[in-house]
Amino acid sequence: DAGVTQSPTHLIKTRGQQVTLRCSPISGHKSVSWYQQVLGQGPQFIFQYYEKEERGRGNFPDRFSARQFPNYSSELNVNALLLGDSALYLCASSPGLAGGLGGELFFGEGSRLTVL
Amino acid sequence: AQSVAQPEDQVNVAEGNPLTVKCTYSVSGNPYLFWYVQYPNRGLQFLLKYITGDNLVKGSYGFEAEFNKSQTSFHLKKPSALVSDSALYFCAVRGLNTGTASKLTFGTGTRLQVTL
Questions:
Q1: A107 to chain B: which residues are within 8 Å by CB?
Q2: Are A48 and B99 in contact (CB under 8 A)?
Q3: What is the pLDDT of residues B19-75, one digit of tens each?
């Protein structure tokens, strides 16, 4: 069975540009969450979407936005990129709003964004 | 607010010896606790979780963790370390009353180095 897939795996942007990252959840999973992992730190929660609705948002500026499509895939958009946005962006899926049977999330390999 | 502390940036252990990676947490109410492992340039892999019940939980690859409510700790352990266990380990917590069900709060990670 396919796991969580993310694209692109690596990308380089310059300051001020915009980026879109994509995520396909595990088949049957209806919830997608996004996390930002800056080098040397733990992942930080950005968004959760469930049934195409935003169910939670972390402490990130409005330059960050996301959406979920009818097939439960998701996009994360970041506008007006800053150097500090350089990070590994992780997508995680789960069957329902509360995570797996015990609340665990299933993570993709991530999209590594470098902002120059 | 919920938080996780991993007091050791790195843990070094010889192959065949037991290992412990420490984690303490702070959360309102009863916690959901998780350990994830991250190999270089990869996403997070779920190892184990504590929801309720037995304080000693067993997970993947021979890892186990002990929940101690009085000390608010959830230390990861393995009786006999392997060189292939070398990776970055993250402890995470989710409170049962978290409005955003999938919001995990991660620690800063502990790098485990197992040598021959």
A1: 36, 43-46
A2: no
A3: 999 999 998 888 889 999 999 878 899 999 998 888 999 999 999 999 999 999 999
DSSP A95: S
Give the pLDDT confidence of A51-83 residue by residue, as tens digits. Answer: 899 988 999 999 999 999 999 999 999 999 999
- Pick from A4, A103, A107: CB nearest B94: A103
Omega before B31 cis (within 30°)? no
Report the SS3 class of residue A82: coil
Arithmetic mean of pLDDT over chain A: 92
Number of other residues whose CB lies within 10 A of the CB of residue A82? 12
Q: For chain A, what's the residue count?
A: 116
Rounded CA-CA distance A52/A73 in Å is 9
- Hey, what's the torsion of the CAs at B46, B47, B50, B55, to 10 degrees? 180
Residue A70, Cβ density class (10 Å: 0-12 exposed, 13-18 middle, ≥19 buried): exposed
Chain B residues in contact with A33 (beta carbon < 8 A): 102-103
pLDDT tier at A98 (50, 70, 90 boundaries)? Answer: low
Task: Please say whether the beta carbons of A66 and A75 come within 8 A.
Answer: yes
**How far B85 CA lies from chain A's nearest CA (Å)?**
18
**Spatial distance between the Cα atoms of A88 and A90, rounded to a whole number of angstroms:** 6
